[in-house]
Input
Amino acid sequence: MANKPKVVSLFSGCGGLDLGFKKAGYEIIWANDFDRDSVETYKKNIDNRIVLGDITKIPSSEIPKNADVLLGGFPCQGFSVANNKRNVKDKRNFLYKEMLRIIRETQPKFFIAENVKGILSLGNGKVIEMIIKDFNSIGYKVEKPFIINCAYYGVPQFRERVIIMGNRINAPNTFPKITHKNGYKTPIPDFIKPEDYNKLPHVISVKDAIGHLPEPHTEEGKLIPNHIGSKKVSGKYIARKNEVNQAEICDYLKMWRAKAKITTHKIDKILGYRHTAGHWFRKDISGSIPSPKDWAKLKKILGFDDKYDKMVTEVEERKIKFEQSLRVTNWDRPSDTITASVPEIHVNRKRRLTARECAILQSFPDDFIFYGSLSSQHRQIGNAVPPLIGEHLAKTIKKYVVNNNPEKKWEELKMVNTTLFNGVRQLPS
Ligand SMILES: C[S@@+](CC[C@H](N)C(=O)[O-])C[C@H]1O[C@@H](n2cnc3c(N)ncnc32)[C@H](O)[C@@H]1O
Output
């Protein structure tokens, strides 16, 4: 296509999101990141127009104006629920202001920002409200944030992220339709007809995605780029002595919580957590059983009896059996979230996942090569938006981007809905 829609990309990383747009027929005309390895990976796989440098030091006069889409997965460490020190004042939280500045001064038609789920609850929802208001105030219509679970789009990974989308051309902000269904007994999302949902293929398992790979240290394995995995795995772990039925414990805790008339939020507050207790009252895949320490504290709060004490609290030290240790990627379902730090232990090998395995679980193509040390490769891969998600997003908005929508500003700035989160569309996890 001669006239490809043009993309400017901020916080591009190694280019996961951008690769999706490229595959969907867009042209990346400018990109930026300040991480040397990411920039090298980007140059060699996507486009050499990426600029190495700190975005806070780059004037918008150096960035092309009127792009069709501006992408910006602004850094999320400050927002992450995994980061206990997160707070509204974290300097990194304000990197989105750089994105805001560049959007205001270069006027792309659309923008897409990706972030971690923790952004929705940061400052009790005040941060996301502020972000949306800020985008509204520079003339962009922004819908409620969309929580995307990548497994439902054909990525072999349960990875939940928030997508914030806006445009200044009075077009709808549309989000992609799911393409896969969960094989587990989770509720059918309310925005898809059950008959349509049932026709979808199942989510892709780890085994389907990486089961065919030879071992890295074999001759054949060595031929696969980035197929390197750390053999540093700790030899022991603490596990419960007894088998525990999570659904049963969950019902039990729910019953006692109802008796005690207390919310999960209050429990979190008493225990000094922010988003932990909710998991103990959930039966789906995101549910969990309290640790023995939390169980004792919870017992004081809810006043439950001794029925499950032994089962939940008796632990023992075990040698890691590589088939079933605690934090290993499950073979028969999509993997847990691939993070930017040390990867999980392979389900049946005495080593951690290789960079290539992580890349495949993030939907990177086999010929996409990562540069830098092994830990840098893992960081680039774990930070990325799965290219397949980028492609879905790119295709979904393409008709609005290319159909020459009237270039009118979005005038009727609606007040940000204060009940924002009641309306967030969420897929079962
Ligand atoms: C979450 S990652 C983005 C991943 C990317 N969207 C993808 O799909 O691969 C955030 C990126 O922001 C970059 N970054 C953080 N602060 C920056 C700054 N001040 N200037 C430029 N890049 C920055 C980091 O190096 C990192 O690569």
